Amino acid sequence: MEIRQDRIRNFCIIAHIDHGKSTLADRLLEYTGALTQREMSEQVLDNMELERERGITIKLRAVRLNYRARDGQDYALNLIDTPGHVDFTYEVSRSLASCEGALLVVDAAQGIEAQTLANVYLAIDHDLEIIPVINKIDLPAADPEGVRNEIEEVIGLDAQDAVLTSAKTGAGIEEILEAIVRRIPPPRGDQKAPLQALIFDSHYDSYKGVIAYFRVMEGRLEKGMLIKMMAIGKEFEVNELGVFKPAPTLVDELRAGEVGFLAASIKNARDCRVGDTITDANRPAIAPLPGYRQVKPMVYCGLYPVESNEYGDLRDALDKLKLNDASLVYDAESSEALGFGFRCGFLGLLHMEIIQERLEREYGLSLITTAPSVMYRVNIVTGETLEIENPSLMPPSGGIVSVEEPFVAATIMVPQEFVGAVMELSQERRGVYKDMVYLSQSRVMVKYDLPLSEIIFDYFDQLKSRTRGYASLDYEWAGFRQSKLVKMDILVNEEPLDALSFIVHQEKAYQRGRALVEKLRSLIPRQLFEVPIQAAIGNKVIARETVRARRKDVLAKCYGGDITRKRKLLEKQKEGKKRMKQVGSVEIPQDAFMAVLNIGEEKK
Amino acid sequence: MLENSLPAALYIHIPFCVRKCRYCDFVSYPYNESNARLYITGLRREIELRVGGKLDKRWPLSTVFIGGGTPTCLSTAMLLEIINFIKGHFILSSGVEFTIEANPGTVDADKLSALRRAGVNRLSLGAQACTEATLGILGRIHTHAQTVAAVRQAREAGFENVNMDLIFEVPGQTLTEWQCCLEQVVALQPEHVSAYGLQLEEGTPLKEQVDSGLLQPCVEEDGLAMYRAAAEILKTAGLEQYEISNFARSGRQCCHNLVYWHNEEYLGLGPAAHSRLGGVRMSNEANLIDYMTRLNTGALPVAWSEDITPENDIFETIFLGLRMICGLDLERFRQRFGRPLSQMYPGLTESLVNKGLLERRGNHLRLTQRGLMVANEVMCEFTPTVNILDK
Q1: Does a structural domain hold residue B270?
Q2: How far is B373 from chain A (nearest CA, A)?
Q3: CA-nearest residue of chain B to A550?
Q4: Given B238, B261, B284, which residue is the final one in a domain?
Q5: Measuring CA to CA, which of A43, A285, A397, B375 is 20 to 30 A from A408?
Q6: How far apart are the first and last CA of chain B?
Q7: pLDDT of A170 higher than 60
Q8: Which of the four pLDDT bands, split at 50, 70 and 90, describes residue A214?
């Protein structure tokens, strides 16, 4: 079916987590008949099990909605889903680049949150037409007028035409569709020009290879066409082309303005990079579309198999995950304590947790994750600068001139009564105060420059708990700054355990070292011998705890003739031991390697 | 074939108690006469089903153990009925060890005499503790005075082989109290003592009291000291430790329990009783009604059974054997499984010997004194990996 370019609308939804994006998307699908109510398993767009559980969208998806508008014309509305978390800003930017407009969904009871604000600014940068949608108007605490004012004051958008909806009850859904048709401009782009299609997502299918999701910006893409990935330089023949309605439906061609997917027997995901431009190999475009970049990780950690013979499986699993997640970065490394593994770079903590969980859940691996760290720049006496992603590789202090650590510019939005708590926390975490703006009488925007390592440590958790969950946080890269940092080593049974080393500010070293050894004492189960745990800076031990020896572990009675019960108890005991990592002669549970994150600052 | 697999050990479970003890998670029901009658009907039926066809094949028993529950909460007449039924269906060898468990609060001179006359020659008394405070925490129905009386009555009835069960590591119990208890028990001159460290089992009232903080659990150091005190005081009194929890005068080791520790076959009858028969482990329906229902349809009341895989057989033989102070007979092990243990677990024995947890004594592999205290840690290392038989 031919679709006229002026009847196409490409749009995405910008919303804070919990503000109802997925439910709204479901209602749009349902209203346009893309799915019947019965077909809808709740929230179709979040099709990854993990996403469903965490209530967040990780990967982008595109769906075509057929809508007959009040003007009597049929329109094809392409909804491009976007992730809603600070870790995935680059993915958001790619999906925004594929759209002409965006729905800005704001919870009528909660108001604008920091992350929403960041994404709206991103959308404005991309010249998108923004339609404010005030959602959840059915809630008793809903204050649509207040939110309308907030949108105008904080973002500077005209919110008089904001659509009031309740995705839950279905109120206002048609108004949204009409607003999309009337207010969002149709795509431009010359169907006769050389092909330029922007890849905004991909995923790996074990039968078809890499599936690319793209938006045709110029020209046309046909089945059977020999295409070229402009950044990578490789060529492939398109053997499948289609759109999601939301079920995949094959088509013969897609033209400028349209959104779809293709399969081209792409075996290696590195050949299909998100952000790359697809062109016609026989009639290539002069230049790729702007905006392609390789994303840079913010957070690093070591991933090691508990069983060393699973190293190969871990490598294969990472290779496969990399297929649909170009932002995942990893390099082989080895640890004296943990053997062979990988140093992995992630966009943020959530991204790290997701990858870790997917490795364990989808690939059945049992992993040890070391505490996350950031990349430090270490200026050494020879005049060189080292980039250190693994704290255990920090050179001895004698050879160091200075150390720089990454800072971020953080924006915190919070009800006025919690401003004191936010400032106190930020100050404790070495924050540098920048600015404070009253968004309304009751809501305040606070800006701090903070070391990224502190955000990773526990800033976000603390922020949530000290503001009873009301604060929202967004941050952006603010460059490297020199700090007084030292490397803390942890010795278990007199041996340094490299995987537990961490880098910490001098003034906090004693406190965190103390807290960590206490935490480790509680996490490491008693062994058959006494195990000392020490924290040391250089050769100086600053804290010591001892895991007392287990001296009695004997099952007295024999349960009559119930030998099976006794056997199962022993098997369970052995199973528990297997889940631990044997380091030297000490058995250490997996969570001990993350202990540095859970030591709690309050404990002094 | 079948004859070879007829086990020489018989266990009868009597699932009734006057009142369930606060630490107990065995299967037992409050005693009442009609349930007891129902039970006896069922037990007779089970015996007939199990051995009926084999009567002419002479099924000889060298040990019989009537346990519970509290067997002695049944009337003398009922107990005699059960004993006579056993005697009618099995052949008791001349040196048979015939044990009955008894709660000191449920016996008197007449009952004990009757049991002794009927052929029971070993009495296992659940003394458990010697102070009213600890007996109370355990939820026992008897007093220490009743224990003393029961031992005297047993002797008068002609029992020359008396065991006393004791429990240590009870919340609130002190080392001094335990030592004092051991002295009092030794003074009664039992032939055998079982001293069990208290295991707080899920779902028991005692565990709940400890979990909710109402009772303070015994600390490890005290438990260790109590265990050592038991070995020392009992040894001085001529009761040598021969198993993790068991002590006996020479020649008075419990033959029935040795069957378990040698991982040999045994037949268990009654609700919730376990058996090992012809390479299969099985357990009976625990619930009396389920037990009866099965029997009424003419079926064995087996609720669960499992073929013993060669790996599990090996593992069980090892950990049960290590419970004995003399240890596991490696020569017997090799004969039973056709291969030496060292070949199935390369390097493991050496490593545990080097850690001072195991030692070789002649043909035996046994726990060291230190290993004994952490027996579970040692035993669980022998958990079978699939390939122990491929090596």
Answers
A1: no
A2: 5
A3: B374
A4: B261
A5: A397
A6: 29
A7: yes
A8: very high
Clarify whether residues B163 and B35 are in a common domain: yes
Q: What ipTM did this prediction achieve?
A: 0.92
pLDDT at A57: 40
- Rank A78-87, A394-403, B34-43 by mean pLDDT and report only the highest: B34-43
Question: Would the pLDDT of A603 be above 60?
Answer: no
Q: Which chain A residues are closer than 8 Å to B246 by Cβ?
A: none
Residue B144 lies in a domain: yes
- Which pLDDT belongs to residue A168? 82
- What distances in angstroms separate CA A76 from CA A2, A262, B43, B107, one per listed residue? 11, 19, 78, 90
User: From the CB of residue B369, how many other CB atoms can be counted at a distance below 10 Å?
Assistant: 12
Q: Which domain holds residue B362?
A: 314-390
B180 and B325 co-located in one domain = no
* Nearest chain B alpha carbon to A567: B316
pLDDT of A207 > 90? The answer is no
A552/B383 touch (CB, cutoff 8 Å), yes or no: no
Q: Which residues of A touch B11 (CB under 8 A)?
A: 560-561
CA triple B128-B132-B138, angle to 5 deg: 50
Kindly report the CATH number assigned to the domain that includes residue B136: 3.20.20.70
User: Where is the domain boundary, B227, B245, B261?
Assistant: B261
pTM, to two decimals: 0.68
Q: How many CB pairs under 8 A join A and B?
A: 96
Residue B308 lies in a domain: no
CA distance B260 to chain A (A): 7
DSSP B303-314: EEEEE--HHHHH
Q: Quick check: A46 pLDDT over 60?
A: no
Residues of A with CB under 8 A from a CB of B: 528, 550-558, 560-564, 566-567, 569-571, 573-574, 577
| Per-residue pLDDT tens over the stretch A279-323 | 999 999 999 998 777 667 889 999 999 888 899 999 999 988 887
- Indicate if B94 and B185 belong to the same structural domain: yes
CATH at residue B326 = 1.10.10
Residue in B210, B209, B207, B247 with CA at minimum distance from that of residue B227: B247
Verify that B319 and B173 share a domain, yes or no: no
pLDDT at residue A99, rounded to an integer: 94
Question: How far apart are the C-alpha atoms of A583 and A586, rounded to whole Å?
Answer: 5
Judging by DSSP bridges, how do beta strands A129-135 and A163-164 pair with one another? parallel
Instruction: Please spell the DSSP secondary structure of A38-77, one letter per residue.
Output: TT--S-TT--SHHHHHHT---S--EEEEEEE-TTS-EEEE
Condensed to tens digits (0 to 9), the pLDDT of residues B46-66 reads 999 988 766 566 789 999 999
Q: Are B243 and B337 in the same domain?
A: no
Beta carbons of A555 and B372 less than 8 Å apart: no
The side-by-side arrangement of strands in the sheet containing A367-369 is A329-335, A339-346, A299-305, A367-369
Q: Which residues from chain A sit within 8 angstroms of residue B220, using beta carbons?
A: 550-552
- The reply to whether B65 and B144 lie within a common domain is yes
Same domain, yes or no, for B134 and B247? yes
pLDDT tens digits along B202-215: 999 999 999 999 99
- Under 8 Å between Cβ of B289 and B209: no
Residues B257 and B321 in one domain: no
Show residues of chain B in contact with A561, CB under 8 Å: 11, 260, 266, 268, 273-276
Which residue carries 């002295």 as its tokens? Answer: B183
| Contact assignment for A567 to B316 by CB distance below 8 Å | yes
- How far does B322 lie from chain A, in Å, by closest CA? 12
User: How far is residue B191's CA from residue B165's CA, in Å, rounded to a whole number?
Assistant: 12
User: Which residues of A fall within a CB distance of 8 Å from B260?
Assistant: 558, 561, 563
Contact criterion met (CB < 8 Å) for B376 and A569: yes
Q: Classify residue B267: in a domain, yes or no.
A: no
Residues on chain B touching A573 (C-beta within 8 angstroms): 376-377, 380
What is the count of structural domains for chain B?
2
